[in-house]
Each structure stands twice: as structure tokens, then as C-alpha cells.
Amino acid sequence: MATYKELQSQIEALKQQAETQRKAEIAAVVSDIRAKMDEYGITLADLGSRRGGASSKGSTVAPKYRNAQTGETWTGRGKMPRWLQSAVDGGKSKESFLI
Description:
two-stranded antiparallel ribbon
């Protein structure tokens, strides 16, 4: 039976072997993709690649409604804020708060 150190050594060797195999397989896939892109005239833009470009996630939206008394604003997205909801409940129109 193998000792703990021998097993650890085998594990490390297998990890290195697996990483080498992974890199070889990735290289083959990338080569195949490039060949097909050349064959069909496909560019990264055709794939809709967002890599390196601006992401829309987390972007800010300009406010659409403003409370003139407090200066609070709302974009019109999501749940209506309390200040606007109470004004609408009080009889005012939401449109009267448009910026």
C-alpha cells in the first residue's frame, strides 16, 4: 500500500497532467473556432462579444420625477417611492411631478 507522501506526489503529478491536457484541448478548440470564423467570415462583432466594451449592467438612469419640496427624485423604474405614492393617494397626478 502507498504511503501518504506517495499518494500526494501522485495527486500532484495528475494535476499537472490534467492541466497540460486542458491547455492542449483549449488550443485545439480555439484553433477550430478560428478556422470556422475565417471560413464563414464571422467577426467578434457578429458574435455579440461584450468583452472590452461598456456594460449596461449597473448604469444609471436619469430621473423622471422630482419632488419640488424635498428634491427627491425617481427614475420611474421599480416600486413607486413613498413620497410620490402619498401624493398620488392625496389626489395629485403622477404627471405633475415629471421633470
